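Example record

The entry below shows one chain as it appears in the dataset: sequence first, then structure tokens.
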Amino acid sequence: GNYFGATEEPRYLSGIVAGMQTKSNKLGYVAAYPYTEVQIGINAFALGAQSVNPNVEVKVVYINSWYDPAQEKAAAEALLAQGCDVIAQHCDTTGPQIAAAEKGAYAIGYNLDNSKVVPESFLTAPIWHHEKFLIPTIQAILDGNWKPESYYGTMADGYMDLAPLTDLVPAETKAKVEEVKAEIMAGKKPIFVGPIYDNEGNLVVEEGKTLDREGIWKTDYLIKGVTAVK
């Protein structure tokens, strides 16, 4: 069997936070590798930001590594130098968050609630609750009744989530996030709904069409409003 999570759901919500928090309308994103999983997250983040702030730009730097604290921080510093005032990430250390804190900017993390690490900059983070899948799965294995499946955990399952919004996030933003989160968890808010254009102007999701899991995992583009450096 295999398992993964619908990261696009909390990524979209974190984009709403960033889109409402920014003053420069420039959002930075430190990304690991230019492939489907990472592109899904970038696109979902951008769509969330654009839903509340159509003027935002998302600037991406790929570092071609999952774990490189120095490079992650340097990439964030480069994005901050371009005027980005909120830094998001899809890489595995607090480097980007620390860079944001040092420049008086905001940070959106990944995997964990790091609000105590960088309290002066941390807004929230898409997070995982692996225990929601692993505990019952391991128990089923022990009980001898496990059957392999291809699991795709959602926020409604409790597998994916958004870390609590910190006090740096205004009440208006918190209210908007809660509103959209409720829609997502009720199955009323799919993330990728057309029309969606890529950043080269091509129509990649037709008007009225919604990408299902299979369609989402065919992503090989970045959407309009996103620029990237590899």
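Notes for this example: Residues 62 and 230 are 5 Å apart (CA to CA). The first helix runs from residue 8 to 21.
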